Amino acid sequence: GFIWFDGKLVPWREATVHGLTHSLHYGLGCFEGERAYATERGAAIFRLPEHTKRLFNSAKILQMDVSFTPEEINEATKEVIRANGLESAYIRPLFFYGAEGMGLAAKGLKVHALIAAWPWGSYLGQEALERGIRVKVSSFSRHHVNIHLCKAKASGNYMNSMLAHREAHNGGYDEALLLDREGYVAEGSGENVFMVRDGILYTPTLTSALEGITRDTILRFASDAGIPIIEKQLTRDEFYIADEAFFTGTAAEVTPIREIDDRKIGNGRRGPITEALQSRYFDTVAGRRND
Ligand code: PLP
User: Which parts pass through the membrane (predicted)?
Assistant: First the structure.
């Protein structure tokens, strides 16, 4: 296969970096997670312009000067799918500082760009999409810096996510639920979170969660379907007594949550509103619905 690297398609095995790559040492870089789905008209990347926009917003927050335009990145993303003959794929664009210099100033360092794509099934397992997953509130909070920096999908932000995900796995759970510094529910390690109670759809405000593109899609679907939506700070016990809960994300798609901290959510199965939103999501990404 091929990876797009600084403007050229290079063979997969040649898309390597030096051991002194700046972003490898300090963790400053930004990335995206996108999916292409098989549709009647071939592979279609779901909401590509929005993902590219968020990637450039992340770079702006981190003050990384990217030498490519969003249009070039959009084109390159499609090229990666074509060149690899992929029908469906997970896509990973990345901006990072190379090995041209060290030190925190990172002055004048070149921002490198790469885009890779590969076939990837459902992130939390096919069974998870139907049965739902078991989740544990994490001992790691969403922010490891004392400022709200959640608009950037930045590699330096994922230490907590990784520690939280591992902690949940080591404890026998499928995924972690991270709280913000005040103790309100923020999001999963790589997913936004929703709950349903008495027919109302709730999701945390975006003060401590990534502006998920799947989250936005689900909010649009719910609004179309006339489901009332409330965005507010939510506590973990509100989730404990919810009728339904689910995660959203490009990787996790729409994954029902059947248990949080060993408490069954609703009847412990995928709830009706979750199922309706999930099925509309899969119809839309596969091009069976035009929205
Ligand atoms: N929250 C975090 C921390 C993420 O890394 C992701 C991943 O993409 C999401 C939420 C979901 O965002 P999206 O739906 O745009 O993929």
Answer: none
DSSP letter at 77 equals H
Asked if the ipTM is above 0.85, the reply is: yes
Residue with tokens 């099934």: 121
Q: For a pocket test of ligand 1, which of 54, 191, 206, 221 has the largest count of ligand atoms closer than 8 A to its C-beta?
A: 191
Final residue of a structural domain among 93, 118, 143: 118
Give the domain-ending residue among 94, 118, 142. Answer: 118
Give the C-alpha separation, 252 to 209, whole Å: 16
Mark whether 273 and 199 lie in a shared domain.
yes
Give the Cα separation of 76 and 114 in Å (integer): 9
* Dihedral of alpha carbons 162, 168, 173, 177, sign: negative
The Cα 213–Cα 54 span in angstroms is 9
pTM summary value: 0.96
Q: What pLDDT, in 10s, does the model give residues 123-149?
A: 888 999 999 999 999 999 987 665 567
For residues 53 and 190, membership in a common domain is answered with no
Q: Which residue has the tokens 């069974």?
A: 127
Q: Tokens 């994954």 identify what position? A: 255
Residue 113 shares a structural domain with residue 200: no
Query: How far is the C-alpha of 55 from the C-alpha of 76, rounded, in Å?
Result: 14
Closest ligand 1 atom to 150 CA: 3
Residues with beta carbon inside 6 Å of ligand 1?
Answer: 33, 153, 161, 187, 190-192, 210, 212-215, 248-250
Mean pLDDT of the chain, nearest integer: 95
Which helix (H) or strand (E) segment holds residue 103: the answer is none
